[in-house]
Specification:
The structure is a homotrimer of 187-residue chains.
Chain A (H helix, E strand, L loop, with lengths): L5 E4 L36 E5 L2 E7 L5 H10 L5 E18 L4 E7 L3 E13 L2 E11 L5 E21 L5 E5 L4 E4 L3 E2 L1
Parallel strand pairs in A: 6-9
Antiparallel strand pairs in A: 1-5, 2-3, 3-8, 4-5, 4-6, 4-8, 6-7, 7-8, 9-10
Chain lengths: 187, 187, 187
């Protein structure tokens, strides 16, 4: 482990609302699980709609995952692609181990650029579900990254959320143990 | 070479269909070239259209390039931007050497996150052509990447394919030896 | 600093037109500041509109930031998201230091893939403003990156510029010293 991070193995699919005890459509922040990243402030995401896209901004001290899940539910967004850039002062990032079929989560406690943020929002068992990967930039310009479990923004995070016309639900793929997008057509 | 990969120099522009012996619009998978990555299974990409975009998913064991080229041809997509995330268990990634004007291809044989997948689909001599760059995440969260020549998905790859209204053709730029997009306007 | 780059600390928000002495809407290239990257040629960006998006291509020897700012002004684009891939033969990339609240700029003088290019175009004091992050790929496939201050394309850079229906202005956030997007709604 080269990244100077604490490593805690496990925590599969932690961007799912079901990783909190109460996977309701509008989870109460107070019910966030013991492993949740603790924000400084209650989130008040800034956003603006343009066509089928939303421009979204998070402020310093805001977490990313929980407010975004709530906002997706409140805006009834059943599918969206996500792209963005910004910076965090801490983050949790995972690697999916093909042998154990488990995510290995790394808590990163340092100021880092979010150099790329690529993902999507779908529905898992009726509730918003996030799948996001990030590259994070360190002071020497080196880059680390992987599956994004969450983080605390500092000073800024800017996203484009491009909504689809229909919701996309995920179903459990027994072969890999992951929830995968259920799409209508096959080539 | 820090990445523990086998290195085989050469293989310029290998994401083009013309790198296989028969660059037809719907190449027969059985005719794939000797350097092609061998998939476990015949590809059955999952997809769904939403507006001018397609949501696309590849399953474990599927290659990326050949099925995507076939699907682009079958859906008569003459231009699209591509963005995505997922994971591969092997990949071929290249660096373009400005002195030799050749791609240097690296075969990477390990389970890696696709942390970013950014590219486009155009037409080269009438057939679909892919230009894709990837960052790949390793178990220690370190990132490697470059020009994507192909890979075998495991367990999942999710793309957004945003189709343009008109096809974009590529033409050979003699100065750099690459096929570049022919666009109508200049600033 | 592992990247073999010259380091010059400072240069906050250098992708802003105001980092040149004359932040007019259509800055004269001859007035570019002393720290500007010097292109080989006057820029003649290639582009083509498709729906609400522009496909844009830069040629070898072209800088990225100044021509893009001029083109945004000429096309009256008050908001757009930017995504792309390509390669540069030199670039300037920064890390935002949370303690000093300053960008630390690194001049990188080598041929590198632009593996991801994610950003947006907004307005700052009425003039186009760019916020872009890049991952850059080196010959050994290692990746460096961060906040993109500019670079010289070689041999090619391909962008998708997705225009919004309304302009988005930036305002100074006193707390972090950065200009942040002013969006109409809050969750």
């Amino acid at each position: 482990m080269e990244v100077g991070a604490r490593v805690d193995i496990g925590d599969p699919q932690p961007t799912s609302p079901s990783s909190t005890p109460s996977p309701t459509r509008l989870p109460n922040r107070a019910r966030a699980g013991a492993n949740a990243i603790t924000p400084d402030i209650f989130s008040l995401m800034h956003y603006q709609r343009t066509g089928d896209r939303y421009i979204v901004r998070f402020e310093s001290g805001e977490p990313v995952v929980e407010p975004l899940l709530e906002w997706l539910a409140a805006n009834k967004i059943g599918y969206a692609s996500l792209t963005g850039l910004g910076a965090v002062r801490e983050a949790k990032v995972s690697y999916w181990n093909g042998e154990t079929r488990q995510y290995e989560a790394h808590a990163l406690d340092e100021q880092m650029e979010i150099v790329s943020f690529v993902g999507n929002a779908t529905l898992k068992e009726g509730a918003p579900f996030l799948h996001i990967h990030v590259t994070l930039g360190r002071r020497d310009l080196s880059i680390i990254g992987g599956h994004f479990n969450g983080g605390v923004v500092h000073p800024n995070l800017e996203l484009i959320v491009a909504q689809g016309k229909e919701a996309v639900a995920r179903g459990l793929d027994e072969a890999c143990g992951l929830w995968v997008m259920q799409l209508h057509e096959r080539s």
